Amino acid sequence: MAATLSAISSLVLRLKVQPPRSLLSICKGLHPNLHHQPARLAHRPSGLLATRLPTHLSQFNRPFMSSQPRASSQETMRSIGMEWYELSTARKIQWDLGDSKDAKWGWVIYRCTYKPELDGYWESFKCFVNQKSRQEIAKSDAPEIAEKLDWVFVEDPELEGASREELKRRFRAWARTEQPNIDSPGGACRGSRYTYFIQVDEGALLSFNGHVNIVRGWQDPPPPEEAMDEFGEVIDNEDWMMMQASMIAPYFYIELDNDESWYVHYSAPPHGMCVW
User: Fold this and answer.
1) Is 0.85 surpassed by the pTM of this model?
2) Structural domain total, the chain
C-alpha cells in the first residue's frame, strides 16, 4: 500500500511539468522561455499527496530552524511582514542569506568532460544557467539577491571522467574552506549551497532529455554489510539523481534547502529523472 501511495504521489507531482527538452535546444532557445518555471503546489496538499510530504513541509515550517527565525533575520521578517510560507522564492532566499555581507547562494557545478568538441555546449550551458536565473530574479520582489548569486562553475581537466566519490571529496574540501565549522556539532547548518552540487558529464552535455546530475555531497555509501537488504537486493544509496537542466534555478535551490525535500523529489537513476 505504501509503495502504491508513493507511486501515485510521485505521478501527481510530475503531471504539472512539461516534458524535458534537450540541453542544446534549451540553450539555443534562451530568450523566449527564460522566466518559465514548472508549476508548483499553491496550497497545502491533501489526501494521498499529503501522505507523501513530510509533516514540516505540509505545515510550511522553515527548514533547519526552530519555529522562530534566527536573530539576524528577525528584523528583516518584521519589515517584510510575512511568514515563511507566504514568501516568494526570492524572499525566501533573501531570508536565508540573513544580514551577512559575505553570504552567497548557488550551487557548485563541476564540468567532468573536456573533449574540445563539447566546449561550445559547455559555454551555452553556463550562459543558460546564468541568464535564466538572473532574469527570473530581476522580475522578482527581491532583485537584490542577484548581488549574492554565485553559481560556482568548476573547470579543471583533472576532473575528466571524475567519479561522484571523487567529486564529493573535492566538494567537501571546498565547503570546509567556505564554512570552517561545517563539521562541528551545533555548527552552521549546511543548507542547499553546502549540501548539494551539480555534475555535468559527457552524458549530460549530450543528453537528449537535457539533464544534469545533482549529488548529495555528504552522503556516503553504506558499509558492505549493509549494502543489501534481506532479499539480497542492492540498497539504493539515494545520493544522486538526474534532473532537468532547467531546474538549476532559484525555485529548486531553495526547495532543497530542506533536507527532506530530497526524498519528496527523488527519482532513482538511471531510469528515473526529476522534472518538477
Assistant:
1) no
2) 1
